[in-house]
Amino acid sequence: MTQPRSPHEGPGSRSVVPWLALAACLVVAAGFAVWLLSIRDPMGSTEAAGATTTAPTTADPSDRVGALDAPVAGTLTAEALLTPADVADAGLTVGTPGASDAPAFPVLCDAPDWGTQWSAPEQGVGQEYPGQGAVVSEYAAGYADATAASAALARLTGDAVSCPDLSTGGSVQSTGPATVGGDESAIFVVDDGGHDGVIGVTWSVVVRSGDTLLLVGYTTEQQIGSGSGPGGEGDDSSGDSAGARSTAEALASAALDRFTTSN
Question: pTM of the entire structure?
Answer without folding.
Answer: 0.68
